[in-house]
Amino acid sequence: MASEMRPLRVIMREVVALVAEKATGVVLIVTEDNRFASVRLRSGHIEEVSFKNRYNDEGIHLLSQVQTLRARFQPGFAPPSTHPRIGEAAMRWLLGGFENQTPAPPSTPAAPRAPGASGSDEAMHQREIIERIALGYLGPIAGLLCEEAFSSAKGIDQALRQIASNLSEPGEGDRFLAEAVAAIRSTK
Q1: Is 86 found in the same domain as 17?
Q2: pLDDT along the chain (188 residues), means of 10
């Protein structure tokens, strides 16, 4: 997978090829507006799709509306999904329905949120702010690391500390924490 911006259907063809190869790993995707998405594969099976803090059917529907993006495949361990399974219609879209250039069908009913994720608009806004700040420190992997932190943490402070723990330069974690806390406070 190349790192330049390409049409969605080109990226999805590469995902289908990875499925055919029975690959295990994560396809890391970044949109033109620096939004992060991922497709987790395990032994050629699509385990999970995430985009904009939405998972599987809902994430697939949102991702299907993106025109161009870049992606790379990170082979290796892909933990099992903790979210509801991908629905039949969404899976059909993933495995070839994208060729007709129509968006994936929306999920019916809405998929439940990840454990620990708040459904409030304020919490979602805070998560977006934190992801945007983390992007400056961590690059394109920031979305995945933020997603993992928010799904496993028991509050925003713990999530911030978990994200900061991924920064290796001395003082960088402290700068990230200070910037994130200040940005969150300024929205209240």
Answers
A1: yes
A2: 83 94 94 90 92 89 91 86 85 88 64 43 81 85 83 84 86 90 82
Which of 44, 59, 50 minimizes the C-alpha distance to 95?
44
Q: How many domains does the chain have?
A: 2
Distance, CA of 103 to CA of 76 (rounded, Å): 29
- 8 Å CB contact between 70 and 80: no
Q: Whose structure tokens read 């700068």?
A: 175
Q: What are phi and psi of 19, to 5 degrees?
A: -60, -45
Statement to judge: residues 61 and 26 lie in one domain: yes
25 and 86 both lie in a single domain: yes
pTM: 0.57
- Neighbouring C-beta atoms of residue 84, cutoff 10 Å: 14
In a domain, 105, yes or no: no
